[in-house]
Queue: 2 jobs
Job 1
Amino acid sequence: MSSGARPIAATFVATPTLTVSKAGGLGTVNSSPAGISCSTFCTSTTAKFLGGTKVTLKPVPAKHSHFVQWLGDCGPVFCELSMDEDHEVEAVFAEDPRYPLTMVKTGDGQGLVKSKPAGIACAYLCEAVTVQFYSGQVVELQATPRTGDTLQGWYDCDSKPEGRCIVLMTDARKVTPEFGPNARLDEVEVIP
């Protein structure tokens, strides 16, 4: 058996690095094939891919955020890379716009007004309140009259199912519940 030197062939495979960062609002970024997974609160992550691998990145905005654009080695809208070299990209998200919803009570009575989602909570002595809601949110306001009073109506709502006020936030809005005293029996006019 020969103990002389023998040639050895070695093959090196390049594994370029993909670095993904995020800016602005909240969202996630994932890759296909798997490797990049940057969750909502992640700000930056890296992964290595075999040379020549085609990698597609997908941005998924969180609730009340939207995707703006890609920066770096990707185009502004789509991100597909050939991993022939190292790449750096940034996904830019932004928070959705918000609009004010103003609720102003009117009338001679009193009542409580609360909203879903939470934000407006106006007790008996509260006369008006303004709260910011996200564009596209549907806000439901519920009025509860004080004992001895009644809700006489809502004004400037998109709809009023069963005494509630429904508002779609597409711009600044103002709604008005009217509270008044219950009519007492001796105040009711009897028509013969």
Job 2
Amino acid sequence: MSVWSDVGNGLAAGASTAGNAVEGGVDTACDGAEAVVIGGCDAAEAGTTFVSDAVDTATGASNGGGPAATAVTVVVNVVLGVVDGVLDFVKAATHSGFESLRDIGGIFGGLLRGDFGYAAGRFIDLLGQIAFGLLLILRVLALGYFVGAIVRRYKRDALRRFVEGLLASTFGQPQLGAIRRRLRLTGGGIWGLRLAATHKVCMFDSDHTPLWSLHQDGSLDLYALAGLWSSDTRRNSGRIYPHDCPTSVVMFVHENGSETRATRFGLSRYINDPKHPGRIRVYAMSRRAIAQKLRMARVKCEEIGVRLSWNDSERFYLLGQSDTHEITTTQELNFSGNGDNTYFADRGLRTGTAGDDCTPLALGIFNFAPGNFGLVVGRDDLDSKTPPEPCPTGGRTDGCCMVIKRRTDGPPPAALGSAVVHRDFWPTHFARFILAHELGHYFGLCHKGNETWEHIMFSNAAWKASGRPVPLSGTPPFYWHDEPIFTLENGKNAWRFIVQQMPHCL
């Protein structure tokens, strides 16, 4: 490199450092404050749910406790629903307000780094947050938060009654008693299927992969992955559509193991210096993006009676480190997969045995080769086959017949293992729901029966392929809930799948 290149890179590094400091400082302050407020609201909502379940158990309402029990349940659901509505409003307003501040910090950070596409993207996000804030005000004035919370409580009670009946018709004593205790249907806490879930994010490490070589031959663009403008791959510069990895992060790794965000000067040195000095890691998603998706997946799965506990933090995530899955090839950079994929077993992430089912695994990747947003592995929809195969799960109401597929033809190591894969995309606001959508597949749901945008299991690609008209909702979705949901029928069909395909997890 020439002296002038060094000078230019040095100036760019200074601007990048200033931009990183501005955006990082705003993010840190907002993340901490939001975590405190929303964490407190979540704790309060857990308390109201605990009280509701305790009353339901004590009165026997979920097992046909009679008119008196039903009357008590109605009163409790209305009162606690109003409380939940207040908490929902506080959480939505808090998140929208801090997201707006983060967007402002991102705009200034992007401008200082010279990452003008990123700044433009954050400006568009800011406009979206302003519009959402206006809708939020209209919804609270129309009492939508309170009505939505009450409806959600009735839906939850209806799902519990269904699960109680399904278990009673499927299992006999003493197995039924043990299952009801594990699901806390007999009291002692909030009911639901508790599963420990693992999330890993794909990561390149220059100690094991010559990233400079992959950059020089065009297999990847380190500048673009770091959110810096790149003349090497302009399509992927600027963090704005159609950027494949809108929240990817490139970090310098220091001798003590600590990491700092990469600058243009350091990356240029690593790429162009014959000695390729330094060590870098490239992550498919930022810590913040991962935390948002894990929280959304946990909250949404609770709508179908599944309570996930993740290995990674949803709050104060800047204080920790994400669990990673190191990749070393460009084939893994552009994940090429389908429901028969053996990648997880081949890489030792899954065994292909029934034990996999009870510990959901999610992998955050850089990009899909086919252009998809997510994927479930180890599931098979018998109804989609030609001709459709007999369905072992009776009573489904969605025209879907999902079963667990243990392995492909042949002995292990051709095992599949249950897992989900997801990636980020722009606008990232909608990417928050992809992990929850894929986990819906994991618990036996498919796109059928979910034909409007208010449904988590709605598929835009499936809708376009079907030739159906624009999917308008049959209910007032934004009045009842301000984001996509799992419906009551989703919950019932998921539990039919759990009871028939995953009884070992009960």
